[in-house]
Every structure is written in C-alpha cells, then in structure tokens.
Amino acid sequence: MEKISIVVPCYNEEAAAPLFYQAICPVFEKMPETKMELIFVNDGSRDKTLAVIKDLAAQDERVKYIHFSRNFGKEAAMYAGMSYASGEYVAIMDVDLQDPPELLPKMLYGIVEEGYDCVATRRVSRKGEPPIRSLFARMFYRMMHRISSTDIVDGARDYRLMTRQFVEEILRLGEYNRFSKGLFGWVGFETKWLEYENIERVAGETKWSFWKLLLYSIEGIVGFSTAPLAFSAFMGIFFCLLAFLAICFIVVRTMLHGDPVSGWPSMVCIIVFLGGIQLFCMGILGEYLAKTYLETKHRPIFICKETNIEPAEKEHA
Ligand code: UDP
Ligand code: MG
Predict the structure, then answer these.
(1) Nearest 5 degrees, angle CA 107-CA 201-CA 175?
(2) Model confidence over 186-232: pLDDT tens digits?
(3) What ligand 1 atom has the least distance to the C-alpha of 10?
(4) In what side-by-side order are the strands of the sheet with 35-42?
(5) Which ligand is nearest to the CA of 213?
(6) What are the pLDDT digits (tens) for 221-277?
(7) Measuring CA to CA, which residue among 169, 150, 165, 13 is closest to residue 93?
(8) How far is the CA of 48 from the centre of ligand 2 (A)?
(9) Using CA positions, which residue lies closest to atom 8 of ligand 1?
C-alpha cells in the first residue's frame, strides 16, 4: 500500500491545528487505498501548539510530531519534515488551511497516472493580502525572472506533492540558507502546476511581517543569483569612465579659461554620491560573504528536541 507523508510546519498554531486535522480527515477517508502519515513540525511555538498536536497524536496513530528546540523558521521545518517522512510520496501543507487539502487526490493523480515527479500549486490571485505586500512580491518575482537562471514561479506556494526521488534530491541540498521556492525549481524534474484563488487563513495570524519577507527575498536573490555582484562591478566600470571623461573636461576647461576656484557644492555632491555607491556595493559583497560564512560553519538546519517518529520509520532520512 502506498503511503503519503504530509509535512505540516506549525508556529504558534494552537487555534489552527485542530481545524486542520478536522479538515484533512475527510480527505483521508476519500483515499482509503492510500496510507497516510501527518507530520506536524512544531517550530518552537510559544503557545500550546505542542500540547495540541500531542493530543492529536494520542488519538490517531497516523499523527506524528517533531518538536524543535527553538524557532528555526518554516524552511527548517519543511526540511525536518521531509527528512523524517517515510512515505513514497511527500506533501507539504500549511496548517492554516490556505492550502486546500481537497486537492490531494488530484495531486496524487498527477503523479501516479500522469507521470509527473511533483505536483505543485500556485495562487493566481492575492486577494485578502495588503496591496503593498502584493506589489513588492510581484516586483520580486519579475526581478528574479531576469537575474536568475533558476525557475522561480510567481505565486508558487510551498504546497506540493513530491515523489520519493524528488524529495531525496531536495534533501541532498543541505544548504543552511534555504530558499525552497528556488530549490524546488533548481532540482528540475517534471512539475505540474495546479492553480487556485488565494484563500484567507482559517485562524491565528500570519507569521510573516513585511520585514521578515524582505529578508527572505534577499535570501532568494543571494541564493539564486550572482547578478548583484556583476552589477557592482559594472557600476565601478561606469564610474571610472565617467571620472576619465570628467578629468578630460576639466583639463581642457582649465587650459582655455584658467582655474577660478569654484565648484565646492558640486564637489561635495559627487563625493557623497560616490561614497554612497561604494557603500552600497560593499554591502552587496558583504551579503554574499555573510552567507558564505554561515554555510562554512555547517551548523545543523534544525535541532529536534522530541519526536514520536521511531528511528526505524525514518529509514529514508
Ligand atoms: N511557520 C513556521 N515557522 C515560522 C513561520 C511560519 O513553521 O517561523 C509556518 C506556519 O505555522 C504556517 C506556515 O509556516 O503553517 C505558513 O505561515 P503563514 O501562514 O504565517 O504565512 P503566509 O501564509 O501568511 O505566507
Ligand atoms: Mg498562511
């Protein structure tokens, strides 16, 4: 009997977790010929999420949990879930029901019957989201499309069903600075896209502030493109050329008209402007250096404090 492991990252989701469980059980009943495993990853929640999912695990043996020693972020939670999953197929689903569980049979069909390696989802609208957030998200995807050779799809969610082979390849990418939307594209394979309208979360509130999203987008840019480095080099060349032309102009002008002392304000403007550009380029360089530094430490992506998954079940990890 085939088994699907569903990885569910949870951070302060005491309200949403039971609702999620109630919503997914009917879907399981519709798929009696498939064995199911629900892996809740408690990503260092500060509320009663752990107690809630332990309760569910006590009632239902399909429910598993991984409890982190602190908050490591959704990326780490997805990685942990995938590495503990034992199913032939692995799905990732948010606990807030923004990822409709009813799509699961359709996703399985895409893999088993249509031969895809992965069935992923993207939302075609962003209704219910602050307009400024949507605007920046659009800009981000447009820019990534230009500067990165990896396929990063606009509106793609982390909600997807993958084959064991696909998951193993994702797990081989053991980088510390993770940007899954890029990693999923990077490994390649055949991906089928299902589309749906944005759904608002069922309980609790979003864990992504604008600031967190901005940092996450920098993760994406630095992780999947070196274009900013080339950009700073071009900027350097451009200003060298400009300086050369300015020198020629000043020499000629001095020879023709002498050298009256003037131009202090324009000098200050030029110095401040170039100082700004230099700091900006150094910042870009620093960002790449910092990421390299973190990668070279080889710190674990997550630390599991407690789990009810037996080591034997974890044969694929
Ligand atoms: N999440 C997590 N760790 C975090 C932040 C979020 O595991 O540090 C989980 C969260 O519990 C939810 C999913 O990631 O299941 C998506 O988060 P959220 O719904 O807040 O993001 P949004 O849908 O607003 O982008
Ligand atoms: Mg959500």
Answers:
(1) 65
(2) 998 989 998 888 777 777 778 788 888 888 888 888 888 888 888 88
(3) 11
(4) 191-196, 118-123, 156-163, 89-92, 3-10, 35-42, 63-68, 304-307
(5) 1
(6) 888 888 888 888 888 888 888 888 888 888 888 888 887 777 777 888 788 888 888
(7) 13
(8) 19
(9) 73
